[in-house]
Amino acid sequence: MRETDFLIVGGGIAGLRAAIALAPAGRVAVLTKADPNESNTGYAQGGIAAAVGEDDSPELHAADTIRAGDGLCDEQAVRVLVEQGPAYVRELLEWGTRFERDASGRPALGREAAHSVRRVLHAGDATGREIGRVLWERVSGLRSVETIHHALVIELLVEDGRVCGVAFFDPSGVRQQFRADATLLATGGAGQVFRETTNPAVATGDGISLAYDAGARVVDLEFVQFHPTALKRDGAPRFLISEALRGEGARLVNARGEAFMTRYHTGGDLAPRDVVARSIVREEEQTGGAVFLTLAHLDPEFVARRFPTSPTCAVVSASISRAIRFR
Length: 327
Hints:
By secondary structure, this protein is an alpha+beta fold. It has ten helices and 14 strands. Helix 9 (300-306) runs antiparallel to helix 10 (311-317).
């Protein structure tokens, strides 16, 4: 049995940032289920939103967020997000995160759905990977933090109604225990419980299950956001097509090549994600055909430069097609 002061389950942005904050207060152990790059953090493409632009403010960001949430948001949580977000973005910049810059040297801000102004900082179309890189580098330099990869946590240890650690299988498959004064679950999402998902294979909802089995109350499980655009290739996993493409002018069209989103929402292609997802389904039902994301009107060089890791670049550069099919 091993012991530590703070135990963190999960090696994405949340777990790593918590480890950095806790390091001065004692020993920290971070358990990751697989390779540290295999988390939703590494798959996040578009960017990180914060009110850092001259035409922006936390109040405007809050209003956009609540509107996109159809009025169902926890407004206290929204306030924390929009008011503290800019400071943490500046922290990432100070730590060396390579966000794209404009001609003046300031962060280049992109536009995504439901945002009324440009406020999305990005590192190409691999922002999550870049933030993860910076946080892992910072964690690796902290002597009070140790990380254990390929550790599958299977149970929270509970004594006298209080969590006191975890049981897990180590990389060799041996059951182990790790006790701690405080345990943090930062295990990410549960996309793999659905047939269609752009989440990595490790996103199986472990944290929710662990907490529930230990007696925690769970709420709002019905609020699962599906990204509306993903590359559809038979026999291949769904690959997320960044919303930032639509922010830069890509359009949703039906099988007849007709743009249709303005029929469903005044925001058009930049309507909130739940609206876009429902609109795609309705359009397919009404037309009996597929829906596509067209880049035909965009400059191929700009697309390849702005989205260097996206499969759209290969398609545009090769001049095979300028429409990406998805469902």
